[in-house]
User: Fold this.
Amino acid sequence: MNIQEAKDSIKDAVSAYLAKDGAGNYTIPRNRQRPIMLVGAPGLGKTAIMSQIAAEMGIGYVGYTITHHTRQSAIGLPVIDTAVYDGVEHRITRYTMSEIVASVYDAIETQGRREGILFIDEVNCVSETLAPAMLDLLQNKKFGPHRIPEGWVLVAAGNPVEFNSSAREFDIATMDRIRTVYVEPDTDIWLRYAMSAGVHEAVTYYLSVKPQNLLRVERGVDGSLFVTPRGWEDLSTVLREYDGLGFDADLNLISQYIHEPTVASEFKRYLDFHRRYRSENDVDAILEGRSETSYGGDAEERLALSSVIIGRLNSEAEEGMDLRDLLEALDSGESLFDLRGRMRREMDGNVTADRRRSLSRALSAMADRSDADALREETRSRLEDSMRRFDSHVANAVEHMRRCYGEGQELTTLMSGLIGCRNVVMFAEPTGSLYTYTERILVHGRGSDIRRRMGVSE
Assistant:
C-alpha cells in the first residue's frame, strides 16, 4: 500500500485498540493488541506519519530511533537487590526502568495523555546484543521486566533487507505476533502531499515529469546510488532558502541530497529551466489578471507554469488559514498573555506541520502587542482582504490557462493540482472561484483526474 493508505490503516488500528466498552475496558484486550510494524524503503515518510496520526487523534506520542541506543539504555541497568525466599535472604539482580518505557510515563505526566503511540524506528537494524530485547518488545510489549503502560499502542518501523545491510529478518514466531504493513512508493500520492506541504515547485515539476525518480536504490561496485522522498523534501527546504538569499543551487549542492549522479544532473537542468521559465513569466500579472500574453511552449513548459501558479496559490492559502486560526484564537476571549503561553506549550508538544506553522505565525503577530481588541480587528480585516484576493487570483489563474491553452489538459492539471492542496481546499469559500470552476469542469465531462482526486465516481 502507499503511505497514505498505510497512515489510514494504522489510524484505524489505533482507534480500534483504544476503543472501550461501557465499563471503560478496552474492547480488544492488551494481549490481542498486536504491535504494528511498518516496512518500507528509507525516506517514504514512515516516521512522519506516526507523529501526524498522534497529533490528529489528540493522543500522546513518544518516538525513538532504536539504533541510537545501547542495550543498557533500552532495557535498563542492573542493580543488586535482596529478596527472601523460603525464609532465606538472597542477593538478586534487578533492572532499573528502561529509558524508553520511562519516557512514556514522562509523557503521561507532562502531556497529560494516558493513551498514545510508542514508535520505535529501525527496529530490525539493531545490534546483536540488542536484538533479543527487540524481539521481547514486539512479542510481549516490554523492555526487560518493565511493560509499556496500558493505553499506549506499540508501532515499529524498519527497512527491508535489500535497502539496509544491517537489517535482519524476524523469525516466524515473531512475525506471527505482529501486524505488518508494507509501504510502497507512490509518486502521485507523494506529489499530492508535496504540493500541500509547500515543497519547492521545481521538485514537484521534475517528479511530475519523471515520477520514476521519486525513489531509486541501486547497489554497484563503488557503493550505493540512491534517491529517496526524504532527500527530495530536504533538498526542497534548502532550495527555498537559497531562493530567498539569491544563491545559486549548483550540482554539488544537489548531489548532497540526490545521491544518483544521473538524476542529480537531470534535476539541475530542470531546475535551471524552471527558474528561467518562472522569471520569464510574470506570475503576479497572471494572478492579478493583468497578463495579456498567450504563452505557448511544449508540455513540460506548460507543466512548469502550472506548478509555479499552484505553488503561489498554496502559499496564499496557507497564510489565509493562519490568519483564520489567529482570529479564532483572538475570539476566544483569552488575554494575549494567556494565548501566548498556551500556544508556546502547544508548540512544545507533538503537533502537525500545518499547526506548528500556524502557531509560529500567530506568536509572531502577537509579539509586542498589548491590545487584543485592536489586533483582532486588524486580523479580521487582513483575513477578509486575503479571502477576496485569493478568490480573485484563482479565477484569474484559471482564465489565463483557458485563454492560453483552451479547455485541454493544462486546465485539468491546474485544477487537479489546486484541489490536491489541503490548505487551498480548506481556505476556498464553497461558493467561490475554486469550487465554481471545479464544478464546471466536472459538469462538462472533463477532468477524470479531478474526479479521482475528489473521490467522485465516474
Observations:
- DSSP finds 20 helices and eleven strands in the chain.
- The CA atoms of residues 44 and 347 lie 25 Å apart.
- Confidence is low (pLDDT under 50) at residues 445-458.
